[in-house]
Amino acid sequence: MKNDEQRSGLWKHGLLLTLLFGFTVMIVGGVLMYKSRAPIPDRVVGPDGATLFTSTDIQNGQDLFRKRGLMDYGTVLGHGAYLGPDYTAEALHWMVEAMRPPNYDSLGVGPKAAIDAEIAADLKVNRYADGTLTFTAGQVAGWNSIVERYRKLFVEGQIERALPKGALLPVSEGGGDPVQELAATKQLAAFITWTTWLSVAKRPEAAHSYTNNWPYDKAAGNTVTGGAMMWSAVSVAGLIFFLALILYFQHRYSLSAAEVKNPSFKFDLARAPLTPSQKAAAKYFVIAMALFLVQSVLGGKMAHDYADGASFFGFNLSQYLPFNIARTWHLQLAIFWIATAWLGMGIFIAPLVSGKEPKFQRGLVNILFGALVIVVVGSLTGEYMSIKGMLGKSWWWLGTQGWEYLELGRLWMFLLIAGMGIWLFIVARGLRAALKAESDRGGLTHLLLYAATAIPVFYCFALFVNRDSHLTMADYWRWWLIHLWVEGMFEVFAVVTIGFLMVRLGLLTAQSTLRATYFQLIILLGSGIIGTGHHYYWIGAPEAWMALGAVFSALEVVPLSLLMVEAYGQYKVIRQGGIEFPYAASFWFLVATAFWNLFGAGVLGFFINLPFVSYFQHGNFLTAAHGHGALMGVYGMLAIALALFSLRNIVEPRYWKEKWLMVSFWGLNVGLMGMIVVTLLPIGVMQALESFNNGFWSARSLDFYQRPIVHTLLWLRMFPDTIFIVLGAVPLVAACTYGLFHMRTLNAPAPQVVEEKERELIGV
């Protein structure tokens, strides 16, 4: 026993050292990023000293870009949505075109190459000094071209690309007034032109631009750096070495959870008394699934906009629900419904851990539910009003902050943090008795509390993104939210929760599970924290992030693969644990989670994260394939699994619609795989090749999307989308809603009923 406790202490300290090392690297790297970020000039002037635009114009342009939700329409520096252009790459291409002589197209290959070399050399020179950025005559011509093209967009929109008239400046904010339209046009052009300059001008201390020469545009002198190639090779070599090392330690020290001999379900949760807070948690899961259905329908609408942005089967839907609003809601609802399911799971599991429920727990659960409803409805309404120009100067507080995945207004963010704080209080007081009974502060129950605490704590890092944040620093902290909160802390909570439940079910031994959990968390966080760096390759960060991001991102495949192996081991012990297994549907969604963890997050993530590959595909459909496979495939499927596990213990067994849920299981997984295989992957590959051959601006142009083969693949997506919605989301919502009206009686054990259909599903 003493040796086991000593080993437990070693693993606990190993995890603490991993966290300390990972976050030290992240913070030091962030400080270096802050010091070396591209300057925002006080003035940008022409060769004659005349002011073209100022830092105020750049900031106002960034505000306009955000409050109109343009990051959920196109991208800047490769981050955002993919229906619109990448504004940085497009404007850089426009500037190159404007710098060419009028007879350029009639020249031969040699003269064209000479002109392009001269333009590239001109753009690469960094003429920033003492707060003033000086443009050459050619760059001034480029600036004028960018302003004129944006002026046309402000007035006319681009209906074939789902950008209706008035989308950039609604009438309520001056749309239709030529003077105000020109002023707003210049502000947006100032922000985009600044991102264009920092993407091509050389860093003072390096031979490449602030964005490591991204986007690729040979005519502008932006080509892949030697560092991108070198660190791609190093990351693959590191993956092979560390994979062998981790497998050695896993087998040498038996770091997998060991099953008990002759396992049986000694703790059948479906027969345990139902507490008031658990019953109150049921509505969390039903609302989460309803939000998931709405999110799925919005995704189908957005997919249609790629194929036909002008109309929705003859109806001008974009006038009322433009693409950027649909995508803003799509992303926010993904976070809301997944988080709601996880919060409900935390509420449900607390009484199971402690064996009793504190007073007034149900009241707190209902208060939290009301707070979540206010946040969801308020934030979605505010985002719509901001993008439609109805909020004026309050857009940042009540509407949208405008960054992808961080769209909700600052007020709603504070309320969401407060809600998660209430949730943590509910869980902590529910675990109090079990925490006191557990002598080891590094035990499973304590780990469960630590994992729960990490969820609200890590969301708070998003507060470092302020209204006037530098674009590079906003992206630095934004990816703390996306990668470390969504992809990191939620996965930590899942690993601990699943291990805990397997022990309580009597299928795994507590000590081996604790040891295996620590091992999984060490390699998961050891690679995942610094692995956030692959999002920093091209946002204006130092080249050192390419080394850190490449190596540690490659290692992220290892824990995902081992989690798949661990899931298979859990599958075996469940099969041996007895035929009366009431969680078949939940279990199969866990199987799906393990598969998508390996394929969607691991394989597709590794495919795009090597710097050399990322340089050409960053901001195209290959990223979307990974995003869908990871967010929906892993966190979505896991949220459904946890919701169904909890609901199965709340609903009367005879009213549990297992058959509907298995239809949903196949509909969601077949539909998701269809989206990726039919549309996202093939178009992503074609975009990467187009970028390699002609520049990234071309891969994101309207002409590319209108190519016959691409256009056909965009239309074909309606089939997997329909399967996903009709056979996946709808049966799921129906089964959960039906169960809500047939819940068990409080504090009474459920009948020991196991239907024959459940028995059959165990052998699927």
Give the arrangement of secondary structure elements.
Layout: H1 2-36, E1 43-45, E2 51-54, H2 55-67, E3 75-76, E4 79-80, H3 87-99, H4 109-124, E5 128-129, E6 132-134, H5 137-156, H6 178-200, H7 226-252, H8 276-307, H9 323-354, H10 361-387, H11 395-399, E7 400-403, E8 406-408, H12 410-437, H13 444-459, H14 471-504, H15 510-531, H16 544-555, H17 557-576, H18 584-609, H19 611-617, H20 621-650, H21 658-694, H22 696-699, H23 702-705, H24 708-716, H25 718-740, H26 756-762
Parallel strand pairs: 1-6
Antiparallel strand pairs: 1-2, 3-4, 5-6, 7-8
Helix pairs in contact: 1-15, 2-6, 3-5, 3-6, 5-6, 7-16, 7-19, 8-9, 8-10, 8-20, 8-24, 8-25, 9-10, 9-12, 9-20, 10-12, 12-13, 13-14, 14-15, 15-16, 15-17, 17-18, 18-20, 18-21, 20-21, 21-24, 21-25
Summarize the structure in words.
By secondary structure, the chain is mainly alpha-helical. The chain has two domains: 169 residues, no CATH class; 524 residues, Up-down Bundle (Cytochrome C Oxidase, Chain A). It is built from 26 helices and eight strands. The strands form three sheets. The protein has a four-stranded mixed beta sheet with strand order 2-1-6-5. A hairpin with a 2-residue loop joins strand 3 and strand 4. The protein is globular. The two termini are 40 Å apart. 54% of the residues are buried. The C terminus is likely disordered.
Structural features:
26 helices, mainly alpha, four-stranded mixed β-sheet, 764 residues, 68% helix, two-stranded antiparallel ribbon, disordered C terminus, Cytochrome C Oxidase, Chain A
